[in-house]
Specification:
By secondary structure, the protein is of the alpha+beta class. A hairpin with a 2-residue loop joins strand 5 and strand 6. The chain has 9 helices and 12 strands. Helix 2 packs across helix 3 and helix 8 crosses helix 9. It has 2 domains: 161 residues, 2-Layer Sandwich (Ribosomal Protein S5, domain 2); 93 residues, GHMP kinase, C-terminal domain (Alpha-Beta Plaits, 2-Layer Sandwich), CATH 3.30.70.
């Protein structure tokens, strides 16, 4: 079975407060970005195997900074289900096209799509809610990709509510993926959580042309732009090209403009 895990974009991102469990409460609107996709293939096999390809090269964890395929979230997704269901061995082949460390949720998408594929392949008949519960154990962004439609996200990113975004109709989105990787830890280091005067949900109900002035923002931009000023310049270039609204996605480094 083959699927195409897609990226996500954040329309606004407010970091509200730090939680007792060490995570942060946040609010954001996640939307699928189907112009950027990985390729995930899972087949039943005699023994388990995982192959990850990036830029035409098989990743084996030997290069500096290269992750170990056996620790990939897709493998964790398989092992998580294997604890509760009888699953045969599988071979997994993952082609990475979504940039890593870009705030696009590529690893989370791969994991959630793997859960969905295994559910279908082996007739587990899990409802969405159950799949989302498993996905939440793999990462805060993972549950979004189970239904893979616009969702208002709150809590630590695991509380989802479907939300229509009619303002996007008739517009195109241009994504810029600079060759810069930003770790989530790095992005959070300079964050000062605060509850905004106007809730994000209220701001997103405004016409698209009002978003910038009204304050639809990504709280990570202040920290990440200070570390990587070239990202701030890229955002301004999107506005200079005519974007109605532009922003960084997630904790960066990808940016997007809505035209």
């Amino acid at each position: 079975m083959i699927s195409y895990p897609n990226a996500k974009l954040n329309l606004g991102l407010d970091v509200l407060r730090k939680r007792p469990d060490g995570f942060h409460d946040l609010e954001s609107l996640f939307i699928p970005c189907k112009d950027l996709c990985d390729v995930l293939e899972i087949q039943e096999a005699k023994e388990f195997s995982i192959e990850i390809i990036k830029n035409g090269r098989v990743m084996d964890g030997s290069a500096p900074g290269e992750w170990n395929p056996k620790k990939d979230l897709v493998v964790q997704a398989y092992n998580l289900l294997k604890k509760d269901f009888f699953l045969p061995a599988v071979s997994i082949r993952l082609e990475k096209h979504i940039p890593v460390g870009a705030g696009l949720g590529g690893g989370s998408a791969d994991a959630a799509f793997a859960l969905r594929m295994l559910d279908e392949m082996f007739d587990l008949y899990m409802p969405y809610v159950m799949l989302e519960d498993y996905a939440a154990q793999l990462g805060s962004d993972c549950p979004f990709f189970v239904r893979n439609k616009p969702m208002f996200v709150s809590g630590r990113g695991d509380v989802l509510e479907e939300m229509e975004v009619p303002q996007l109709e008739g517009h195109r989105i241009e994504v810029v993926t600079p060759d810069i990787s930003v770790s989530t830890k790095e992005a959070y280091a300079g964050i000062v959580p605060a509850v905004p005067q106007r809730p994000l949900r209220e701001l997103l109900a405004l016409p698209l042309e009002n978003w910038r002035e009204a304050g639809v923002k990504n709280d990570f931009e202040r920290t990440v732009f200070a570390l990587h000023p070239e990202l701030a310049r890229l955002k301004e270039e999107l506005y200079e090209k005519g974007a109605t609204y532009a922003s960084m996605s997630g904790s960066g480094s990808a940016l997007f403009g809505i035209f």
